[in-house]
Amino acid sequence: MPMKKIFVITTIVCLLLAGCTDAQPENSGITEPAGNMISADAVNSDTAEVIPPENARTIHPLPDTTMDNLSDAILSVSLNEGGAYVDDQGRMQMDLKIYTYDRYDMVDIAMLQLGDTIVRYSGEVRVTSMDKTDSGMICINGGLENGGFDLVTDNCGIYFESEFDDAKNWYEIGEATIRVSADFRGTDFIDPEKGEVILYPGDFLVGAVTDYNFTPYNTTVRTEDGQIVEMNRIYIP
Question: In the chain, what percentage of residues exceed pLDDT 90?
């Protein structure tokens, strides 16, 4: 066989061998790593290992300014027996405990992903699972029924933690002594059998108020110019 023909055949064989060496077989098992962004719409297994994403974030509640403005506000409060009295100057006062709840920006929650950390008043929680229900509730780490917690929205741009019976997760942030206005008027619906009862300042002083189940879940006061002008207590089943 002529030498030129042998050289050409040898060259073709070498090129074919080189191509087989560089190519990956279809079932080589080598895949590109998947992205780690997981939206709040995802349903996640509680047993799945969660790897923190490179862009994991810490979600903080919105700043709370409740205690910065007690003079003109609607406050969720608790009142103990003896907490309404007349001081040495003859002015009626109420010693109240003030409560609030954590509020989260809707955008932050919409971007929530596994591996993020949510800061709650009780501490920080790393998100290992989340499940968004048809109603819009987001169950974090199994939800309230499984040792986690639930976030709901009031469609006003915020999410907040919901307890059983749709109650907000109130917690105490301070105490305040606030003067009761002479124009004070209260409405009390703690007992459905009695219906709505009107409360006046003197009712607290003469013992007409006997049920002191005033809690942040059922009681609000409204203040104007640093004085309590209104109190409302509702019935909660």
Answer: 71
- Residue 93 confidence (pLDDT) above 60: yes
What's the pLDDT score for residue 50? 55
Interstrand relation of 158-162 and 103-105 (parallel, antiparallel or unpaired): antiparallel
What string of DSSP letters covers 123-180?
Answer: EEEE---EEE-TTS-EEETT-GGGTSEEEEE-SSSEEEEE-GGG-B--EEEEEEEEEE
Q: Cα separation of 151 and 128, whole Å?
A: 15
What is the pTM assigned to this prediction?
0.77
Confidence band for 1, pLDDT divided at 50, 70 and 90: very low
Copy the structure tokens of residue 43: 């349903």
What phi and psi values does residue 8 have, to the nearest 5 degrees?
-65, -45
Q: How confident is the model at residue 53 (pLDDT cuts 50, 70, 90)?
A: low
- According to DSSP, the residues that pair with 119 across neighbouring strands are 124
* Closest residue by Cα to residue 92 from 180, 177, 178, 176: 180
Dihedral, CA of residue 179, residue 184, residue 187 and residue 188, to nearest 10: 40
Residues in the chain: 237
| CB 82, CB 149: distance < 8 Å | no
Q: What angle do CA 78, 181, 96 make, to 5 degrees?
A: 15
Among 95, 67, 97, CA closest to 83: 95
